Amino acid sequence: MDVKLRGVISGFGEVAARGHLPGWLSRPDVSIVAVHDPVSERRHLAMRLANNVRVYDDLELMLAGESPEFVDIASPPALHASAIRAALEAGAHVLCEKPLCLRADEFKALAETAARGSRVLMCVHNWKHSPSYRRALELVASGRLGALTLLNIDRLRTQPAGGPGSWRAAAALGGGILIDHGWHVSYLMQSLMHGDAPLAVSAHLGVSREGEVEDVADLRVRFSGGRIARSYMSWRAPVRRTSASLYGEFAALEIEGDRLVLTERGGRTEELSVVDAPDDSYHSAWFTGVAAEFERAIAEGPGSAAAIRNITEVSTALRLIEAARESSARAGAEIALAD
Fold it and tell me: CATH assignment of 130-280+317-336?
C-alpha cells in the first residue's frame, strides 16, 4: 500500500477552507490529518469538510501530537513567522500563504532555520498556476513576444477580499494592498522577466480617510536593460478588474481575466484565451498546482530548482515592498532594492 505524505493546516479561515483544503483533497498522495485554529467555529468547519481530521486550538500541541511531514500555514500574515519557525523546529517542511513573512530580517532567520534542518520552505505563489499566467509564461519562454521591454499588471477591487473586517484591512495583522496584491505582482513581474530581480522601484501609496493600511498602490519597477514593469492596485475601484499587458520586440500580449490577445508587430492578432473557474479570491484549482510543485520540492529536496526559485521570489517580494514604502514616504523617489 502506498504511504501518503502526512500534512496539517494551521489557520483555517476562508482561504484554507475554500482554497487550500480542496486543493489538498485532490492530491492522491497527500493526507491532511489535522487542522489548527484558535477559533472553535473554524475547527468545527474543518471537521465538517474533511473526514476524520483531528482539530487543535494550539499549534505546538498539533505539531507534538501529529509529527507531520509538512505544515500548510494559512493564518493572518502577522502570525506567519512564528508559525513557520515552530513548524521548522518540529522537523516539518513548510508551505505558507503569502506573504511568507513581513520583514526581510525575519525571512533571513527563517531561511537559515530551514537550511539547517534540510527542510523545504515555500510560499503560495498561486497566480503562476492560473491558466492565464501559465499561458503568458509559456508565450514569453517560447520567444513569441521577443525580449520584453514593458509590463503592466493591474488589480482593481471594490474592497479587500473578506470585506473591511478582514486581516487585509488591519495593520496589526499585516494587512494592506501591497502585502495582499503587491506580493503576487512582485513574483509575476520577476517570472515574466525571466527570473531577473528588479533593480529599483518608485511608488505612490494611498490610505483612505478611515483606513489604517494602504488601499491604493502605484508602482514603477525598473529592471536591467531599461525594462520597466508597472502596476496599479486599488481596493477603491468601482469595478473588479484583473488585467495585464506585455510588450516585446515582436508582439504585445493583453490579458483581461481569462481573455488573452496577442498582437504581432505587423498587426495580425491571435486569440489565445483560456478556460478557468469563476474569478474569486480563493482559487482552489490554482492551489492544486502549488501543492504539486511543493510535493515535488519535498521529493527532490530544498536544493531543487522549484524550491530555490520560490524562495528567491520571496526575497524579491519583501525587498520590493519595503522599497516601495520607502519610496512613497519620499514622494515617489526611486529606491534601489537592498541586497
Answer: 3.30.360.10
